Structure formats: C-alpha cells, structure tokens
Amino acid sequence: MEMIVKQIEAYREEISGLEINGPASLEEYRLKFLSTKGIVKSLFGEMRNIPADQKKEFGAVLNAFKQFAEEKYENWKQSLESQSDQGTVGVDYTLPGDPLPVGSRHPISLVRNEILSIFRRLGFSVAEGPEIEDDWHNFSALNLPENHPARDMQDTFYLSQNPDWLLRTHTSNVQIREMEKGKLPIRIVNPGRVYRNETISARAHCFFHQVEGLYIDEQVSFADLKQTLYFFVQELFGKDVKIRFRPSYFPFTEPSAEMDISCLLCNGKGCNVCKHTGWVEILGCGMVHPQVLENCGIDSNKYTGYAFGMGIERITMLKYQINDLRLFSVNDVRFLQQFTASI
Ligand code: 2U9
C-alpha cells in the first residue's frame, strides 16, 4: 500500500504543477485523470490488492485524491469560461456601428419613376419593348421614308449580322407593337433606352432615355393632348408652370408640335438656361398620323390618337440643374451620392 500512496502523492504534485491554458489542455487532463480509462479509476481498481485491514485507510486516501483531482478540474474549467466571457465584457455596445453605405437611385431612374407615376394616375399603363429592333417597327411603320436622314448609318447603329436590325432610335417601336396587337383603346407610356450615332459631348450621347406616350380611341383630340400634358408638367414642376406649343414636323404625327415650359430658373424673365427667351423646350408631340394608324391595321376614319415623346436626361438636367450629359453614364459616385436622399 505504501508504494501506491507514494504514487498518489506523485500524481498530486504533477497535478499541482500543471499549466492549463486552454480547453485543449483541460481536456487532455480530464482524459488522463478523470475519464473511465483514467488514473483515478485505475487507482480504485487497486483496492482489490490492498489487505482487508488497510482498505479503509486506502479508501480515504483515494477519495481525497479523487476529490482533489475533480476540484482542480472544476476550478480550471470555470477560470477558462470566465476568460472567454471577458472577451465580450471588453466590447462597448454604446459605440456607433460600422456604417452600412446605402445606395441611391440613379437620377434618370428617379425622374423616369416620377414621370410614370404621373401618367399612371391619369390611367396610362406602362409598356416596354426590345432595344434591338427591325426596320419596320423602328422606321417604316412610323412613316419614316426610306431616304429619311435618321436611317443613315451616320445616325443609326445597324447590326452587322442582319441589315434589317438596328438599335432602336426611339421607344416608338413599343407603341407600334402595341397597336399591332389590335386591342383598342390604347393608353400607354413607354420608358426605355434609345441609341443614336452621335459624338459624345456635354449635350449629346450615343444613348439616352425616353418616355413616349400614346392614346388612341374614338374622338381623341388635340385638346386632350394639351390638357394631359399641361397636367403632367404641373405635377412635375409645380402649379405655376406655364406652357406653350410651337408648330413642328415629325413624319409620324400630323399636326406636330413642340411644347415649351416657362423657365424654372428665371420664372420666364430670361437667363442662361432658357437662352434669354423665358421658355425651355421639354417635349415633342402631335396627333398620330393616319398613315401610322393604317400601317398597324387601325381604321383611321374611326380612331384618332395623340402621341408625345421626351428625353429623360433633358428633364433631369432641368430639374436638378445638371450641365453635362456625360455625368449620367460615367458612374462617378460623387455625382450619384448627391441623390441619396431621394426615392
Ligand atoms: C407612334 C406615333 C407617334 C412620339 C413623338 C416626339 C413627338 C418627339 C422627341 C423628344 C425628345 C424625341 O427624345 S427626343 O429626342 N420626340 O418630339 N415623339 S411625337 O410619336 C409617336 C410615337 C409612336 C405610334
């Protein structure tokens, strides 16, 4: 028995000298001393070799050692747990969080959405169509004659795979496609990107965005057109805005007109933006040419319609006083971040 008791003393010293510095070394200790195949258990197995008169004394030594080894284990465990707690105790929850930068809508999207929402309130629905179009839907159906300058390679991007395909030069292809469906009346607005072969500058680009509109029914008149567009600009620019129409020419409308609004910056008095005229052009419009109606299978004796078209970039530049068209497509965050507050 003396030998085993000495061995137990040696284990006590070993345990006292142990450095438990993490969960791995604690687990190593548990396996060595306290597990079912560990030292404490095997020492209890020695009981059967101890003479009967010494069993009681050995049992007491053994129990004391077991208690010592278990207490050591519990103490180390607790101290490790409290150390890992301290990792979070050091966090100051009152500090402001890391900023999550919020993106912003592109100004063209903001103005497009605003325009669409005004026309939706007037009962128009939104229709969209392809940006790669054939000659019929972009030109011929719209009464644009074969020798029209817009058809020139200088003005239009054609696709090399097929001479009949091009990048649409306006969103009017969408109206043609709606008219061809033969369901009347039609009251639609068409937003979208259009392409023109222009040299890029502060005032021109090879692509830009339009919203066009079309209303076809029996007895639609120029008066309807005027009233609708007047309501539209009042909603977009405020009740004080004035409008005027100037006669114009488009192959797809007859009569045709350009609509100006009173200059927002100088209130009509004259400034650089309105080139001292007091007026700014914002859209083109007119009554749909009877030939265009017939091209799409609509009886021009029964139905009439008006159409209008506007460049979103132009309206955005007026609204936000932006002086360079290129800012819309260079993705400069210093420009785009200025629209964060808008929805
Ligand atoms: C159909 C019939 C007629 C759409 C129209 C304009 C006048 C117009 C320009 C404004 C600035 C294009 O972006 S811009 O350069 N548009 O002046 N657009 S009438 O007329 C149509 C459309 C479809 C079937």
UniProtKB/TrEMBL annotation:
Listed EC numbers: 6.1.1.20
Keyword annotations from UniProtKB, A to Z: Aminoacyl-tRNA synthetase, ATP-binding, Cytoplasm, Ligase, Magnesium, Metal-binding, Nucleotide-binding, Protein biosynthesis
SUPFAM superfamilies noted in UniProt: Class II aaRS and biotin synthetases, tRNA-binding arm
Entry's Gene Ontology molecular function annotations: phenylalanine-tRNA ligase activity
Quaternary structure (record): Tetramer of two alpha and two beta subunits.
Family: Belongs to the class-II aminoacyl-tRNA synthetase family. Phe-tRNA synthetase alpha subunit type 1 subfamily.
Name of protein: Phenylalanine--tRNA ligase alpha subunit
Naturally occurring in which organism (per UniProt): Flavihumibacter fluminis
